[in-house]
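Submission sheet (multi-component)
Chains listed below:
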Amino acid sequence: MESIKYIEENKQRFLDELFELLRIPSVSADSKFKGDVRKAAEFLKANFEKIGADNVEICETAGHPIVYAEKIIDPSKPTILVYGHYDVQPADPYELWDSPPFEPVLKDERIYARGACDDKGQMYMHVKAFEAMVACDELPCNVKFMIEGEEEVGSDNLGVFVAENREKLKSDVIVISDTSIISNEHPSITVGLKGLSYLQVEVTGPNRDLHSGVYGGGVANPINTLCDMIASLMDDKGRITIPGFYDKVVELTQEQRDELNKAPFNLDDYKKDLGIKEVKGEDGYTTLERVGIRPTLDVNGIWGGYIGEGAKTVLPSKAYAKISTRLVPDQDNKEITELIKNHLESIAPDYVKVKVTPHHGGNPAVTSTEGAGYQAAAKAIEKAWGKAPIPTRDGGSIPIVALFSDQLQVDSVLLGMGLDEDAIHSPNESYGIFNYYKGIETITWFHQYFAQK
Amino acid sequence: MESIKYIEENKQRFLDELFELLRIPSVSADSKFKGDVRKAAEFLKANFEKIGADNVEICETAGHPIVYAEKIIDPSKPTILVYGHYDVQPADPYELWDSPPFEPVLKDERIYARGACDDKGQMYMHVKAFEAMVACDELPCNVKFMIEGEEEVGSDNLGVFVAENREKLKSDVIVISDTSIISNEHPSITVGLKGLSYLQVEVTGPNRDLHSGVYGGGVANPINTLCDMIASLMDDKGRITIPGFYDKVVELTQEQRDELNKAPFNLDDYKKDLGIKEVKGEDGYTTLERVGIRPTLDVNGIWGGYIGEGAKTVLPSKAYAKISTRLVPDQDNKEITELIKNHLESIAPDYVKVKVTPHHGGNPAVTSTEGAGYQAAAKAIEKAWGKAPIPTRDGGSIPIVALFSDQLQVDSVLLGMGLDEDAIHSPNESYGIFNYYKGIETITWFHQYFAQK
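Outcome: structure written.
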């Protein structure tokens, strides 16, 4: 196919363009990067126009904008809707990066930068595959792009946009590259995603910071109280103690669990890679099951009192924590958020005040391996990688997958090309150029096979 | 007495000079204020020289310097050693201050600034009482000053200085104004002080920050683990669970406890002042007892993960806490620090690494109400305030009191003039000018009565 040759011939430019995009610190969570988030959107708009997309526009929302582009070659042909996001996670802690997060570098065949994999690198594979097919006049079906800038903060405004643009977004399949494969030796397709419920807790003790000597022991310390509350959220079997939390969790059959555990996984390598002596999780489940099919709870951040250099004997007025749970079918993120909020408020002792603020959430999703989308993706991987993909269930959350099936009644295919070692959301996030180029090729084949359905 | 008139006539200047001292941000805990700490020492040296002290010197230590000054009028007369400190607590959180911490303002007869009471304001009362007595030729005994700059970080180098200067520091009593009275209606003298053991805990889970979706549930989260560990340090009766922690605690007799509980205290006012619905503490003890005679444990600071704006779904590599305990006779701070360190290391689960770093500590101290120093102080308060003082036991720690009795075999008298409402160690620390002036007068009388002993 001409497109594949075109990709080969334009490799270096495809990389240079991605570097340019990675240099824009489009951190959606932090308002001080607001201008940069828009810059990233404008970068995409300009590129779409250059490579021959039609009706390219920056769609305003109550938050960061959504970039839309399309190419309708023949209304009677199938339509692929590409979803991705151009915003990135905050880069802190900056001091743990070996090179500045927004100055991409190529090292050992890997691109190091915040967003290299999640999701600029993976999203841009679609843009370049589209460029190749258009340039070689090999685009076999209609394509629509919807690239948002709020995925890392919960896609709050995407729901509204989708609801208001059902016609415009009409399509036969949605394809998303924002997940990982098991390894380059074992390409895989994610068929299960977790939901998310994210809350912030504020515990207030005395109305001002106090001297821990003059008041210590006489007044509740909100940090100690917050620790008590957090510790009580999980029992010694690693189960979450919030009443009703597991009510809607679908237990997999032993067959399904066996299938899941067939995925190549080595516990010793896993521990070695993370530098830990032991893993920890819910009793009675393997690590793959804990991460893939069981709901989980993590404190994502905690702070209170004096956290500077040296020692300060303060009994603080306030303590805070950011707590999130990952959800599995059929848990509903709004219900769970309500459950957690009510539970935290109900266990708050009367010697403190507790304020719980829901941040954002999303529902879990499981996609079928029978649909045309999955079938075309599997064929494309087999063609490009020389191996049939393994279906896997991933601990990550892409809330919009559930949103799309509700709002647009269209299945999503998760054609991710990332690896665990990409360390997304961490310092020194990276993305292998092998995966970047292989992804562009795979996506090109995906279009061919899907058009033939 | 002439000196009292002199104080009256120089009130405004005494206040202006204190303001000048308060403008120097001499925060000993934070190395970026190192230069300012020395500035405060130099301010004192200059003032001592101006008001007629002899052998004034800035004594270097491994850390911040100690200011020494003296006036020996007659070796056969008794000698008073004044101890105080010119360093202050960190001022954060700055945003909670109504006026900048190092720009003192006078409002409703109160001086608002970091260090206004603890201890610049109280320490400077001695300097100005000394000035008055020298100016009026009414100094009735020998006086030595030892003003340090590391009290807020554990007086690490004071011990060395004292040990190396026993002869120079020879005295009949040590007087310290770094404590509070019950109220201006109920002047009191602190006869009991708590010891302190302060440690920092670092919990390390995975060797890097992880995506909480991809790894959550499969790997221990160091924040959750730290919360579990902290929660386990106290039981539901408010007792500290560290083995051996209470072994050396001297239980007071019912008579002593009754005596202690005679001090004027209103629980409703206490709760109202702190804005809390309920108090919390060790079962079986009153608030006065919990704060005064029982050992306590407080988390003074905690941090880990993402603490910025918005939401970040991170499973962090590390979590930290600063933990301190207040000790009572006969607990030894070094023993307790060792106990806590060993305990924290022993309860650390094998899925994390725990590092415990002792910060600083001090031993508890109880001073006698029979000694000449206490008697002279009691008479001075009766003279200046028109009321006999109530002996109290205070939750605060002045480790050097125990150090002095060990090293110099001299009793200390805690002639503090602060009030709880001064909010030391908190934002908007303040000191009443009534207490400032009344303190200068009380100290002047103290010298007269002690000289007569």
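Remark: Chain A has three domains: 2-193+364-450, 195-247+295-362, 250-292.
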